[in-house]
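Regression test case RT-17, inverse folding.

Input:
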């Protein structure tokens, strides 16, 4: 049994004849300290699955357990970082991080030390006194990461956290993200529409194609050395990339979605 267990999950939206299953009989097992990427396209259930694991919504049926305990709502054992998250605009960057951990740690001194640690770890220490509206978009994403890590979650959920960033800032944040997660040995689920991002960050990639949103999940072990840079990984990176994309294309064609 894995540390994070998702079993026979079903989630639908709509009513009556218009009711649509986003996830159907989906199961996944994640080991403690493992980094798993779920790769898919728009409408393939990534954000829905992230919300279910975060406890922000409940499945129609099926179970999610973490460390043997059932997930039935939000909790400090899970933290979600999403590119759509909005920081508290009236607070400073430091106070945004402090607010995120307000209910997790009791001591004011402990909160400040922890907040300052993650501000420095994410490269935000020099802008800690600024408000989020004064930050560039890459720095706002770093703030979301700092808030998520400062909570000290058992599982970090990353819902397309780098989507929309330009190549330079995206690559740097991806590198820093991989380093921080490795240092803290976090169990991590990445939900992404970028196959390169999945291959560069994860230990295992699970495509969320139409036929893999079910019990028999197809997956790929990523046996690439770390730290990873796409140009330096050569033919093995290209082979894995082609395999993931090929699996996704085959599944979509079989479902009549090509």
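Golden output:
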């Amino acid at each position: 049994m894995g540390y994070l267990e998702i079993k026979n999950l079903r989630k639908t939206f709509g009513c009556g004849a218009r009711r649509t299953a986003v996830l159907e009989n989906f199961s996944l097992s994640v080991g403690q300290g493992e980094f798993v990427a779920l790769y898919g396209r728009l409408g393939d259930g990534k954000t829905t699955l992230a919300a279910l694991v975060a406890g922000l919504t409940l499945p129609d049926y099926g179970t999610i357990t973490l460390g043997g305990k059932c997930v039935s709502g939000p909790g400090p054992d899970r933290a979600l970082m999403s590119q759509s998250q909005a920081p508290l605009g009236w607070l400073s960057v430091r106070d945004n991080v402090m607010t995120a951990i307000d209910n997790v740690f009791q001591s004011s001194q402990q909160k400040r030390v922890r907040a300052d640690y993650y501000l420095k770890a994410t490269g935000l220490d020099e802008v800690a006194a600024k408000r989020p509206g004064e930050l560039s978009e890459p720095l706002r994403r770093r703030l979301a990461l700092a808030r998520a890590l400062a909570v000290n979650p058992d599982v970090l959920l990353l819902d397309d956290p780098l989507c929309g960033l330009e190549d330079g800032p995206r690559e740097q944040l991806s590198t820093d993200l991989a380093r921080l997660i490795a240092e803290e040995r976090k169990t991590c689920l990445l939900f992404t529409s970028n196959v390169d991002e999945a291959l560069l960050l994860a230990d295992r990639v699970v495509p969320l194609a139409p036929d893999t949103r079910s019990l028999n999940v197809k997956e790929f072990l990523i046996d690439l050395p770390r730290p990873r840079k796409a140009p330096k990984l050569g033919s093995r990176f290209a082979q894995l990339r082609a395999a993931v994309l090929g699996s996704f294309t085959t599944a979509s064609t079989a479902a009549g979605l090509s």
